[in-house]
Amino acid sequence: MAAKSFKFISPGIFIDEIDNSELPALPEEMGPVIIGRTERGPSMRPIKVNAFSEFVQIFGNPIPGGQGGDVWRDGNYLAPTYAAYAAQAYLKNSSAVTMVRLAGAQKTGISHGSSGEAGWQTAAKSNAASEATNGGAYGLFVFPSASAFTAAGQVMTGALAAVWYLNEGSLTISGSARNSTGAGVGGSIVTGSGVMIRSLSANTRVAGTAQSSSAAIANEFYAVIKNNDGNIVKETAFNFSPSSARYIRKVFNTNPTLVNSAITRTAQLKTYFLGGSYERHLGVHVTGSSAGQAWGVVLGLDSGSSAAAADFRMGFQAAQTPWIVSQDLQSAYANYEITNTSRVRRLIKFHTLDAGEDEMKKLKISIVDIKVATNDFDPYGSFGVEIRDARDNDNAPVVLERFSGCNLNPNSNKYIARVVGDQYLSWNDTERRHTLFGNYPNASQYVRVEINSDVDAGVTDPALLPFGSYGPIRMKSWTFNSGAVAGLPLGTAPDASGQNAWVRGGSNVTQPVPGLSQIFINISGNAVAAGVGDSYPLNREWFTQLKAVYPTLPLRASASAGGVPNPLDAYFGMDSTQASNNRHDESYSDVLQVLPYSGDSFNTAAGTEYSYLFSLDDLSSSAGMAGTGVAVWVSGSRAGGTSYTAISGTYKEVLDEGYNRFTVPLYGGFNGLDIRDKEPFNNTDLDDGADTTNYGYYSIKRAIDTVADPEVAEYNLMAAPGIWNESLTAHMVEVCEARGDALAVIDPSTGFYAETENTKSASTNLGSVTTAVTNMRNRKINSSYGCAYYPWVQIRDNIGNSLLWVPPSIVALGTFSSAQKKSELWFAPAGFTRGGLTEGSAGLPVLQTRERLTSKNRDDLYEANINPIATFPAEGIVIFGQKTLQVTPSALDRINVRRLMIYVKKEISRMAATLLFDQNVQSTWDRFLNKVNPFLRSVQARLGLTDFRVILDETTTTPELIDRNIMYAKILLKPARAIEFIALDFVITNTGASFED
Questions:
Q1: How far apart are CA 737 and CA 710, in angstroms?
Q2: Which residues, 6 or more positions from 663, have their beta carbon under 8 angstroms from its beta carbon?
Q3: What is the end-to-end Cα distance of the chain in Å, rounded?
Q4: Which residues neighbour 54 within 8 Å (Cβ) at sequence distance 6 or greater?
Q5: CA 890 to chain centre
Q6: DSSP 521-577
Q7: Degrees (nearest 5) of the Cα angle 785, 791, 792?
Q8: Residue 400: enclosing H or E segment and its boundaries?
Q9: Of 223, 201, 227, 226, which is closest to residue 214 (Cα–Cα)?
Q10: Whole-angstrom distance, CA of residue 294 vs CA of residue 288
């Protein structure tokens, strides 16, 4: 502090300490940008990581592929994640990688039903009018036991139990139909869809089958799947007990890729796969049904040319919670409805930062410690937010993040948006860049918060607190009326043609099955005449309505449920555990899956509804009065006048009782990928693609454009391992050249396709040097900002204990990393010293090459500017070249020189940036020279340059340039060249010759 800054009043000694020894911040290390699939993580935006452990935490471990199992539930582990191996290879010896994880995106303006859409749909659609169908989605609806059919006028409520997706053919179930007396026994053994069939009992035999004689269990049925020719491709008994050998997910195909003939050999090819199965949902709605007592009906969920239930054509999207809503501030409970927004306000919802399905399966969110305002000066109450592991239970919560003392006051430092963060990126296809929205940086590594606009404007009542939530969106329940149809009184037999045996939509279906214009459930008391299909009757006089409920998550009913030691520690709201214990419910993720395409996954519309409505306002005492029993949740308690808040007339009562927490799920996330592909970004599809015709092509091009701006992401290398589409790899080179500060490492097209992308045998799918050379020459690339390698290599994955073939760009990146660690980045990343893959230069264990190159092969590749990966008897596997893709001979046709220039230009640009807006005078020029000259001398001393000169004076920065606000310098460089050819003359002389001559 200068003396004039002191305020001297009385005599004394004034001391201040001035620290000028602070070291300037070092620039962050640059590394490659890698584009490709990973196990999980942020999608379609650049994320920088500085260590492999950090990469694994964010993006997951590399996947070697070949891991089958329940692909629908567990995700795609069938194809290698080459990008993750590239990151692992580079981070072995360096500490910076920028990752862009691919997801399925589609170009703005692509209309639904046109080419270019992301996602998937079955190859064919159902025709629900008969069993003669041609694929689509089929649902099994299960209804309660026969005892429930004993009185006319009852509403039989059942549940959707499972959904199958068929590329062709039909799905039916087989078993006993009800007889004409409605007794449910002695009926014919039938097979059909659209017909109520009794579940299997211990002695049920399905006609014409070799059914096991072992005892059946509750909700067990027998399914028959046929192809378009009517041939049976699968028939089996199945049930919904995970411990049973006939558990539905054990006996049916759950791998969607097996329906894809382009990648699945005929012997393994399937015509169908099982989608979601809803074991806990079924257990809640169909209770007390032992073996042989439940009733099932299979319905095609699509209709005619419409494939609504099997249509998941849409781009990737992040998961969300439902709206978290407030308490009812009115003291009167009459006419209370949680959806009445004049009484109950929508407050907040959370979105995952990572688009896709992974986070919604692994995370749930709890609102905790809800407290009313404590004084008149601050009318806002407070609450906490916990980001929890979805697999935990309320007895032992696993809290990944906690935000305490949050509120809804926009002017507070504890405002929920400020504490958690509310920013997100939105891609603009016109400007080819992301736009940032939101006011507060994201403090959570998992979620951001969305605030109701009225809350954010501060115009809502300060007393409002999070008190409950809507449930995830689901298909609306449908009700089938069995009253008189087409003038027929109850119990009337069908006419001779059998046509009146069917009830068709219209007034008899209060909410049609989504996608169905007609619903076909046979309800007559007589057999159906020929020509109507293989469906059989159910005596309709035993019930008035069938109601089918679509899947939902269960809600905690009592504070003591699950054996919580202290009931006040119970989290009300959504429950992710099994009904009989505290273990995680594996069907949880199926309930959260995105709904078929509707244009909006998160708002109710025609055909959809909230799956539940929960509020602490509906908590009441199990003993009927406050303070005498543990809390129980019963829907409608407040409206019925029996809840804590209804009886007391204030919402504070339930909080005073100590029940101040609840849990909400995340749902609706979607990867936007075709789940029938092992490798969604396979080169076969990409080769036929464009922005508007193939979502994979568009997604990769968009990912490249995401990092095209040097001010968005800094890197010095770019790679998209495993992608060799010529248009996309050319775009990578063009972006790097336009930036001028990165080298694209591309994989050439060689005729080889990974086994996940075709059905060829390994012996006929090797690729060739000739194909690689021809394709590269035909491309006519002439740029020093790209390079390529050949062939593929086999590595060992020490994490997964697997062997796999990977594209050469992966080991090239690893070699760049290890080479600059061993020496400098301007040393050639090739040869036995720095390019020895067998010796570990790739950062991954390399075992062999896909093709052993001859000397002539290496010459042919090098002449086409493809760097060979050679195998030598003694030295092992070696990168034996370092050419760029520049055809014109110059120093820049070598990788070491191009990488030197990228480094030098970047560093000197940083130095120059510190002079912007300074005076354009000699002293400023001297400052520039005093930075640049020592830097270049350092590079020269480290063998990057043989000589250099920097000119910055009046000959470069002339008076005219000064008047135009320009400082102009010339930097002359002589890059050091690498030795690639060694000529040795061995001269044999006579005995008498003198070596001194």
A1: 12
A2: 364, 365, 366, 367, 388, 571, 572, 573, 574, 575, 576
A3: 76
A4: none
A5: 45
A6: EE--SSPPPTTS-S-----GGG-SEEEEE-----B--BTTGGG-SSGGG--EEB--B
A7: 105
A8: strand 399-406
A9: 201
A10: 9
- Asked whether the beta carbons of 272 and 100 are under 8 A apart, the reply is no
**Cα–Cα dist 994/548, whole Å:** 106
CA 743 – CA 715 distance, rounded (Å): 9
Write out the two tokens for 69: 């199992």
List the structure tokens of 753: 């396709």
Give how far Cα 953 sits from Cα of 85, 158, 235, 794, 914, Å.
49, 87, 87, 56, 19
Residue pair 845/834 in contact (Cβ under 8 Å)? The answer is no
> Do the beta carbons of residue 310 and residue 122 sit within 8 Å?
yes
Q: Report residue 309: phi and psi, to 5°.
A: -80, -15
Please answer whether residues 867 and 879 qualify as being in contact, where contact means their C-beta atoms are separated by less than 8 angstroms: yes
Per-10-residue mean pLDDT of the chain, 997 residues long, equals 58 68 66 96 94 95 91 94 97 94 94 90 57 73 68 73 92 74 54 80 56 72 91 93 94 95 89 95 84 83 61 94 96 92 96 91 97 89 97 95 97 97 94 94 96 96 97 86 39 31 34 37 34 34 66 94 91 92 93 88 86 96 74 94 94 95 96 95 87 94 96 95 96 96 96 85 77 94 96 94 95 96 93 92 95 94 96 93 94 94 92 92 93 94 92 93 93 85 72 73
Instruction: Give the Cα separation of 449 and 990 in Å (integer).
Output: 89
Residue type, 671: N
Residue 296 DSSP SS3: strand
Strands 399-406 and 382-389: antiparallel
Which pair of tokens denotes residue 294? 């439940």
Q: Which pair of structure tokens corresponds to residue 517? A: 């214009």
The two structure tokens encoding residue 305: 């040319």
CA 317 to mean position of chain CA atoms: 8
Q: Is 931 helix (H, G, I), strand (E, B) or coil?
A: helix
Contact present, 661 and 572 (Cβ < 8 Å) = yes
Q: Domains plus CATH for the chain?
A: 32-106+673-896 (3.40.50.11780), 120-309+477-549 (no CATH), 318-475+553-665 (no CATH)
Phi, psi at residue 441, to the nearest 5°? -60, 150
The token pair at 101 is 């994880």
CA 418, CA 408: separation in Å to the nearest integer? 10
Residues contacting residue 926 through CB under 8 Å, at least 6 positions apart: none
Residue 138 pairs in a beta bridge with 164, 300
SS3 content of the chain, % helix, strand, coil (to 5): 20, 25, 55
| Cβ atoms of 261 and 214 closer than 8 Å | no
The DSSP call for residue 91 is H
Structure tokens, 808: 């050469």
CA distance 594 to 667: 7
Spatial CB neighbours of 589, under 8 Å, sequence gap ≥ 6: 73, 357, 360, 361
Degrees (nearest 5) of the Cα angle 45, 86, 669? Answer: 35
Would you call the peptide bond into 791 cis, given omega within 30 degrees of 0 as the criterion? yes
Cβ 351 vs Cβ 450: under 8 Å: yes
Q: Is 505 exposed, middle or buried (0-12, 13-18, 19+ CB in 10 A)?
A: middle
The answer to whether the beta carbons of residues 837 and 877 sit under 8 Å apart is yes
**Of 815, 720, 838, 810, residue with least CA distance to 64:** 810
CB 647 within 8 A of CB 625: yes
Q: Longest C-alpha distance within the chain, in Å?
A: 128
Distances (CA, A) of 237 to 165, 173, 189: 18, 9, 14
- Give all strands (DSSP E) within 182-244, no chain letters: 189-192, 197-198, 221-226, 232-238
The predicted model scores a pTM of 0.90
**Cα–Cα distance between 152 and 182 in angstroms, integer?**
11
